[in-house]
Structure to design on (725 residues):
């Protein structure tokens, strides 16, 4: 297993965080959050990858065939479900913000200061 | 009994589903939904108290679908329950019950999803406490997160709740994904997700870079939830806008769950494998101390009652982290008792603020001055709770503070007592100042600080208009919670019982053997020799001293302009307004920047210390 996937993970994570930090548009910011989460998918799949192994379905192949780790794939799937819930909720907030205040800029939305 | 464990999560989830399903039938008869929600939460409380009592003799483990470990290898997902995590879960359920009873009359109109979300929130928090699987921990973290974000924006028609909920959701999600990356890395190293299994796999090897990175990443989400500086920014924004009964849960237990997660991850997985206890303790102690001081200073300066209580929670989160970071049985005992006392008292304070909002329609200390005299009972409860927050014996908090301080002294860190006392005095004084000014009209009304007043007056119209009387269902919960905090403080042998749980919690070998081999460990091995948990005169004197000092400082703050020695026009804490506004900017971009800075600093410090 090469180190290449993990360099990609770090890169995607960094890009996503940079996007969240510099974003001036809520929808863009939420998409950047999805980018951050995408780095976890690559990480999970990269952790379970085996060179030359097949997908973990043993329907028509011998059960001792080398296969990639199915557990991380289940984790990635759960991760996708979590992401769907969080993203849907955040986008609903963004829609509300736009409906009520006509802006999606976090700076302009700022009303809370403490 | 073991087979009852998953019910503590299943019952609230079923209750939430049931309420959603019943809605079309009882849509216009809200009391049915209220009653179902309260009965569900109360039932879960009873169940969790029974579970807690049953764990006195040892941990209880439940394997889902009967996938028990085979030859010491965990195949399934487990709930592993001991005194401390079932106690925390019972506290959670108690506060949810109190918040739901309070909501009975608090909301004029309430939609179904409020009850359903509260019960899902409860299920997420209880699951987070009980689970023994690290990925499951992440899932429950997100489950309670999503419910909490939605509850924060319960009134989305205003600008504040949307902004607060967005800040809360984005910062906590970033933290959660960093934690998930850590979980992925540790799975790659050990091939396990069960915490005991992971602990067993990394114990006995020299800790390498990957394990350290995984530990730091997993900590990120938990530190964010625990609102430890510099990950704390979301907390005040979320508290300022969330409905008051929801704030009760945020401050009372959700923040503490983040700290529980740190303790759980450390003592079930990384403690034995990482070694370098001194270095890890030093990093966590530094974080806790900075958090305690920042929280106390910002708290003292606030005029917005909910924000003031929110910063007080940040202060206490720092103190709890200090107790955990000592890595001693007595320190953890102190933190656990402190968490129980603080949860009950802080919940009572928030409910009193809710009554003020219900009756007087404001949470601004400046405009409320003296108007609370119409609410004598609420004022008495608030004042008593404020004194308890300032460590007045015999409420449970002084015991926690005392034991953390004692444990610090035993490790030759006497400054810990000083940090606890000074920050508790500041926080106690801020809350007592509110009690005296708002409810008794003592002293001068605070002068209008234009910036702070503007922010405190951005009103939160949770209830439609000011009401003429306080319903019984709103005043009884805070009284009951204060009484409960008093009872806990007076329980005989409390220290021994909790220390017993703390010793078990910290014995990683016993945890592994119980979870993976089904062993029954009657007597866990303590990290240190048993420490004395008797209540000493010093504890009582320190507690009374802190409370009296808080009272004096509060009176000074109320009569500030009449004190002769000070130059005219000087307001205490004026210099803090600038920093507060600069750091607490309300823009999530800045908060995430601070999180990245914090990640770099903590990661750098731990990597340097361990290698």
């Amino acid at each position: 297993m090469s180190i290449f996937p993990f360099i990609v993970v770090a890169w995607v994570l960094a890009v996503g965080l940079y996007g969240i930090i510099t974003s001036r548009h809520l929808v863009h910011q939420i998409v950047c959050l999805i980018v951050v989460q995408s780095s976890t998918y690559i990480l999970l799949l990269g952790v379970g990858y085996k060179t030359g192994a097949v997908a973990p379905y043993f329907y028509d192949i011998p059960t001792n065939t080398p296969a990639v780790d199915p557990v991380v794939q289940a984790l990635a799937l759960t991760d996708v479900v979590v992401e769907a819930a969080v993203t849907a909720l955040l986008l609903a907030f963004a829609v509300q913000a736009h409906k009520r205040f006509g802006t999606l800029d976090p700076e302009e939305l700022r009303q809370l200061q403490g | 009994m073991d087979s009852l464990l998953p019910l503590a999560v299943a019952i609230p989830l079923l209750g939430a589903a049931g309420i959603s399903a019943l809605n079309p039938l009882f849509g216009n008869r809200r009391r049915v939904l209220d009653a179902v929600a309260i009965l569900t939460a109360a039932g879960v409380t009873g169940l969790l108290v029974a579970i807690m009592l049953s764990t006195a003799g040892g941990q209880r483990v439940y394997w889902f679908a009967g996938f028990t470990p085979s030859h010491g290898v965990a195949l399934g997902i487990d709930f592993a329950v001991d005194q401390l995590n079932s106690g925390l879960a019972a506290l959670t359920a108690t506060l949810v019950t109190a918040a739901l009873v309070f909501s009975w009359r608090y909301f004029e109109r309430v939609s179904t999803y409020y009850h359903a979300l509260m019960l899902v929130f409860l299920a997420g928090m209880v699951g987070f406490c009980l689970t023994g699987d690290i990925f499951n921990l992440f899932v429950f973290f997100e489950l309670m997160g999503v419910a909490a974000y939605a509850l924060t924006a319960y009134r989305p028609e205003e600008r504040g709740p949307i902004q607060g909920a967005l800040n809360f959701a984005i910062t906590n999600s970033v933290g959660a994904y960093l934690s998930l990356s850590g979980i992925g890395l540790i799975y790659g190293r050990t091939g396990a997700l069960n915490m005991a299994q992971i602990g067993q796999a990394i114990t006995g090897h020299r800790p390498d870079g990957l394990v350290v990175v995984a530990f730091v990443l997993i900590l990120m989400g938990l530190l964010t939830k625990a609102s430890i500086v510099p990950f704390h920014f979301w907390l005040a924004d979320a508290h300022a806008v969330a409905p008051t009964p929801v704030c009760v849960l945020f401050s009372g237990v959700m923040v503490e769950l983040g700290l529980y997660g740190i303790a759980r991850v450390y003592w079930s997985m990384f403690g034995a494998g990482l070694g370098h206890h001194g270095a890890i303790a030093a990093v966590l102690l530094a974080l806790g101390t900075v958090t305690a001081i920042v929280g106390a200073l910002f708290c003292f300066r606030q005029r917005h009652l909910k924000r003031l209580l929110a910063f007080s929670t940040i202060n206490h989160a720092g103190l709890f982290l200090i107790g955990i970071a000592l890595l001693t049985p007595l320190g953890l005992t102190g933190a656990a008792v402190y968490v129980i006392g603080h949860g009950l008292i802080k919940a009572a304070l928030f409910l009193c603020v809710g009554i003020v909002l219900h009756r007087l329609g404001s949470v601004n200390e400046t405009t409320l001055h003296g108007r609370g005299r119409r609410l004598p009972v609420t004022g008495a409860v608030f004042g008593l709770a404020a004194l308890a927050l300032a460590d007045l014996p015999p409420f449970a908090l002084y015991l926690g503070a005392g034991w953390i301080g004692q444990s610090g002294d035993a490790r030759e860190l006497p400054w810990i007592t000083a940090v606890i006392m000074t920050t508790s005095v500041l926080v106690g004084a801020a809350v007592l100042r509110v009690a005296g000014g708002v409810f008794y009209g003592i002293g001068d009304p605070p002068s209008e600080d234009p910036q702070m007043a503007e922010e405190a007056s951005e009103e939160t119209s949770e209830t439609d208009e000011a009401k003429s009387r306080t319903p019984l269902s709103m005043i009884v919960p805070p009284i009951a919670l204060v009484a409960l905090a008093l009872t806990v403080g007076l329980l005989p042998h409390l220290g021994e019982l909790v220390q017993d749980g703390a010793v078990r919690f910290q014995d990683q070998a016993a945890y592994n053997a119980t979870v993976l081999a089904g062993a029954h460990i009657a007597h866990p091995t303590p990290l240190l020799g048993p420490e004395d948990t008797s209540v000493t005169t010093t504890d009582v004197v320190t507690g009374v001293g802190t409370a009296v000092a808080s009272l004096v400082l509060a009176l000074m703050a109320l009569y500030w302009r009449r004190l002769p020695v000070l130059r005219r026009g000087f307001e205490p804490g004026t210099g803090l307004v600038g920093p507060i506004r600069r750091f607490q900017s309300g823009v999530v971009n800045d908060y995430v920047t601070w999180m990245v800075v914090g990640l770099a600093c903590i990661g750098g410090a731990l990597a340097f210390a361990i290698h």
Remarks:
- The CA atoms of residues 66 and 90 of chain A lie 41 Å apart.
- Helices of chain A lie at 4-22, 26-48, 70-101, 106-109.
